[in-house]
Write a structure and sequence with these properties.
TIM Barrel; about 475 residues; about 35% helix; binds 5-hydroxymethyl-3,4-dihydroxypiperidine; alpha/beta; 3-stranded mixed β-sheet; globular; 8-stranded parallel barrel
């Protein structure tokens, strides 16, 4: 039976500024906290940095041509705050804005829909030095930056995303410290989560004020499919705790205008949450046009001190847990196949997340703004890169999206993470998520078999068999 997606379904690929751009000092750009962090010895595998990355700033037109060649309908990219407003306050740098204007024009010229993310983790270092996301002021600076970008690009970009995965910004950045700025303070992580939420709400208002009415505004959350190891009450309670800290800490205020009461209780020994001011929840709950869902793998938990617990939580281990309630939950590696990240392959988690939010936010369309997998891809002697595991991963997850659609979820699009192999944060360049292979010595781009497979899907809207991999010469624009 053929698995067809609705007409108009958005087929895209996604990237983020620090992971691909390079050109760290061009356009008057000053360091973001990721520049500082990646240059700090011991933080990133092999001491890799994003200084050059995939050199996208200098290869922008080539990369857009590649997308067109692959028949990709939409491109999700992020803006580097430090490239357009270097210190995170004050006037914008026109040359930085011009880079993004050029990118958007290149995309539109080729019929590719730009989807712009304002913040994918790279806070200007000056703002981090002034206190970063644990400080309330940062939320106001973010809204001002949102207005600047909207005024510069609002005539061309219809789709806007405020934050990418604020859970990672808050809990990996300020809790476990495996991401920039590398802090390990659970209260700072909770304060950061709140100020990211507030920044999101203020930015939505700033965008609405500066953009034409046709603009579509959203946020991308890495919503977790949290599963309990058994139905025992203590295991179910562990699931509840992690659901509060992974999902409801964001969806509560953003979609319903309130933090969950159980989150306050679970964290009461750490903080009284007095950093949430009167009126904040209402400022965070601003109308959205769709919700971005990022999904890679489920999270399996049980009661604390479970003797079968075999890992902390699937994120790099710094010796500090990202979760402010780590002692009340044990994390497990789900059984079965894993990607190169050690993440279990389980498309039913994506189905569950899509069904949950189509129930909980029934009028809000959903877009899968990230999904994909890292594998240890190798280039063959003939210059081709075969990645059957990635094709199988994508096939399984797209079948799950289709199943959710068939059961009534209003899913409008899917963005493969990632267009290119790139800088995978604390893992540096050791993990390859791209549909397109990058040789970091020469910057040569080579579409992998998965890129060709995805191109067929994007051009037909019909899920191809995993073996149905066209030759490059059979692609739409070849
Ligand atoms: O590379 C990241 C991306 O920046 C955010 N979402 C998860 C991806 C894979 O780890």
């Amino acid at each position: 039976m053929s698995v067809s997606f609705p007409p108009g379904f958005l087929w895209g690929t996604a990237t983020a500024a620090y992971q691909i751009e390079g050109a760290a000092r061009e356009h008057g750009r000053t360091p973001s906290m990721w520049d500082t962090f990646s240059h700090t010895p011991g933080k990133i595998e092999h001491g890799h940095t994003g200084d050059i990355a995939t050199d996208h700033v200098n290869r922008r037109s080539e990369d857009v041509r590649l997308m067109a060649y692959l028949g990709i309908g939409a491109y999700r990219f992020s803006v580097s705050w430090s490239r357009v407003q270097p210190t995170g306050r004050g006037p914008a740098v026109q040359r930085g804005l011009d880079f993004y204007r050029g990118l958007v024009d290149d995309l539109l010229d080729r019929g590719i829909t730009p989807v712009l993310t304002l913040y994918h983790w790279d806070l200007p270092q000056d703002l981090e030095s002034a206190g970063g996301w644990p400080r309330r002021e940062t939320a106001y600076r973010f809204a001002e930056y949102a207005r600047i970008v909207a005024e510069a690009l609002g005539d061309r970009v219809k789709h806007w995303i405020t934050l990418n995965e604020p859970w990672c910004s808050a809990f990996l950045g300020y809790g476990s410290g495996v991401h920039a700025p590398g802090q390990t303070n659970p209260v700072s992580a909770l304060r950061a989560a709140h100020h990211l939420n507030l920044g999101h709400g203020l930015a939505v208002d700033a965008l609405r004020g500066a953009l034409p009415p046709r603009a579509q505004i959203s946020v991308s959350l890495n919503l977790a499919a949290v599963r309990a190891r058994t139905h025992a009450p203590a295991d179910l309670d562990a699931r509840r705790r992690i659901d509060a800290l992974a999902n409801r800490i964001f969806t509560g205020p953003m979609l319903s205008g309130a933090y969950p009461e159980d989150l306050f209780k679970d964290t009461a020994r750490l903080t009284d949450w007095s950093f949430v001011h009167d009126g904040d929840p209402a400022a965070i709950r601003r109308p959205l046009d769709w919700l971005g869902v990022n999904y890679y793998t489920p999270t399996l938990v049980s009661a604390p001190k479970d003797p079968e617990a075999d890992r902390r939580d699937g994120h790099p281990d710094s010796g500090h847990s990202p979760w402010p309630c780590a002692d009340s939950v044990a994390f497990h590696q789900p059984p079965g196949e894993q990607t190169e990240m050690g993440w279990s392959v389980d498309p039913s988690g994506l189905y569950d997340v899509l069904m949950r939010y189509s129930r909980e936010a029934p009028r809000l369309p959903l877009v899968v703004t990230e999904n994909g997998a890292a594998y240890a891809d190798k280039m063959a002697a003939d210059g081709t890169v075969d990645d059957p595991d990635r094709i199988s991963y994508l096939h399984g997850h797209l079948a799950a999206v289709h199943r959710a659609l068939a059961e009534g979820a209003d899913v409008r699009g899917y963005f493969l993470w990632s267009l290119l192999d790139n800088f995978e944060w604390a893992h540096g360049y050791t993990k390859r998520f791209g549909a397109v292979h990058v040789d970091y010595e020469t910057q040569l781009r080579t579409p992998k078999a998965s890129a060709r497979w995805y191109a067929r899907l994007a051009s037909t809207g019909v899920l191809p068999d995993v073996r149905d991999v066209p030759a490059l010469s059979d692609l739409p624009l070849a």
